[in-house]
Structures are given as structure tokens and as C-alpha cells.
Amino acid sequence: MKIVLGCDHRGAAAVRGLLPHLRAHGHQADILGPCEGSACDYPDGAYRVASAVAGHDADLGILICGSGIGMSIAANKVDGIRAALVCDEITAKLARRHNDANVLCLSADMSGPDDIAQTVDAWLETEFEGGRHARRLRKVAAIEAGQDPSTVTADEGTTATS
Questions:
Q1: Residues catalogued as catalytic
Q2: pTM value?
Q3: Which domain holds residue 160?
Q4: 104, 134: one domain
Q5: Domain check: are 58 and 137 in the same one?
Q6: What does the angle CA 107 – CA 126 – CA 94 come to, to the nearest 5 degrees?
Q7: pLDDT, tens only, 68-111
């Protein structure tokens, strides 16, 4: 799987530590625009990673900043991105199973390297359930398109007005 990573200055060490873990598990993983120096802005890393995932240049993305909040806000501004801020293995699994999250956002300040690796592994090992969750994601896509999500019906790709 091709995974791209991004960070700000507070997440730089965590991303550098996660990279060999991902590669050791057989993933093609790269840091996009590695943070050099004492200050890197989270929107820059979030945009690079989210754009790569949305453009199908990568399968999934991982973003790490101090809290994870800024990364998730910025990444979710890119159409087609479902960035989830998670804090543990349970929320990581739910992000994939129910929300088909294609970008994982993590906090470097609140998680150590082992916790981050375990959370990432749980996310990567979990598959999207589909079913009722697919309908909900179609509603999210409707919002991205500027439409009322309540117009999305149970049938794939249809709306009540189409």
C-alpha cells in the first residue's frame, strides 16, 4: 500500500519514527515535504498529503501535529478526503470501519511512538464495512457538492430530486 505522511514541527519526530515501521510492514511510505527547522505550518503538510490521496497518487495518508486537530481541519477541506482525528486503536478501527477514513490524524503531544504505531496498525488492518455506512458517506459527498444530504436515498448514487 502506498502511504504518504505529513507533519508540522511538533509532529516531525513522530512521522520520522513511524516511517521505518510502515516500511518494515511492507508499505511504500514517504514523507511529503518533511519539516525542516523549528516551525512548519500544519496546513502545508495537510494539503500535500490530502491532495496526494484525493488525486490517487497515494492510497492513504497519515498526518501528525501537536494535537492532530489542525491537521484534521485542514485535510478535510480537500474534496474527497475523510480525515479522522483518532486517539487510540478503537477510534482508529471505527474511523475505517464506519467512515472509510482515507487520512489518519494523530497527536504527537498525547501519544508516544509505540501508541502511534499500534494505532496506525489498527487503522490499516481494518476494512470499511459498507452497508448503511456507505449511504452515510454518499451523504457526506452530497455536502461536499453543496447539496442537502437528506436528498440522498438508500439507492447508490441517487438523490430524491434526481
A1: 65, 98
A2: 0.91
A3: 130-162
A4: no
A5: no
A6: 60
A7: 999 999 999 999 999 999 999 999 999 999 999 999 999 999 99
